[in-house]
Amino acid sequence: MNTTKKRTGYVFESYKAPNISPFEKLFEIFKELITHTSGDLDEALDWLAELDKEYQLTDENYTLDDFVEDLKKKGYIREEIKPDGNGGMAITAKTERAIRQQALDQIFGKLKRSASGNHKTKHSGLGDEHTGEFRNYHFGDSLERVSMTESLRNAQINNGIGDFKLTEDDLVVEETLFKAQMSTVLMIDISHSMILYGEDRITPAKKVAMALAELITTRYPKDTLDILVFGNDAWSISVKDLPYLQVGPYHTNTVSGLQLAMDILRRKRNTNKQIFMITDGKPSCLRLKSGEYYKNSNGLDQHIVDKCYTMAQQARKLHIPITTFMIAQDPYLMQFVREFTHANQGKAFYTGLKGLGEMIFEDYETNRKKRLRG
Asked: 59 pairs with which residues across the strands?
């Protein structure tokens, strides 16, 4: 595999697709490059030029210059003043949205969408979604749920038309389903190990985050999604920041990430809450009360991991399950995740990068199909 193709990780199926305009073909590749370059337009266009040389993406009828002009006209890039004071170009919010949509299509596109735009729980009760299923009326059922059509039909069958009467035994109610609302915090590890050993782990994590954000915004608008990153410290980021997310020279302060995630979820009124954590390494850092950092990259530091187990137990007491997506499979990491998951009574997945998105989607679907409590 050549270095250019390895750098992007992109398969040029979109370019080969029939009945797609030259702009659309290049735009699919451009969006992929923007994700890999963390929103750096100049670097993305440089890579596109390299790919053009190798794969002949353009011809004399439609050049890269034509493509850039179309990006401007369509509102995907704009003029801006660079930090050095010189003029330049940058991507716009329209491009950010297009990248999220592409991530959603790539990761979740093969999965069936719901026309209603909301999930339903498996549990019946006094909800707001009709099922078309009926049962006998029981004392205490709300009269609003009585199906008059079905009840009158029962009365005719049971008593006949000549001596028509409607009794309690004739009444039936329609089952309804709760529409669950889920508050999710997605934690993304941005420690240095996410790009070590020649493997780009941060780009797939970014894609998953963008796809999940787009999924919730468009399909489950009543749900909430907060995104935080954790390295030496933890901090929240907005959805629009995702394309620009980069790994830093950080250790892995899992405790700070969990503390922030629980602080966020404490403020949510939804009963259903969860934490998704994408990480590839061991906890290796704590922030002390003095503001200094305690760091240890040599194996599993028991002092640090014990703090993680304590946080997992606290989340369990708050009824907040944690699902860990460990994108590495070192035996000592798996042992930590097992203990961490046991302390929280949550779940863990040991996944390669390729299946990360599908796994998170399936778990999101499963977790939010829980009956609203209280």
From this structure: 62
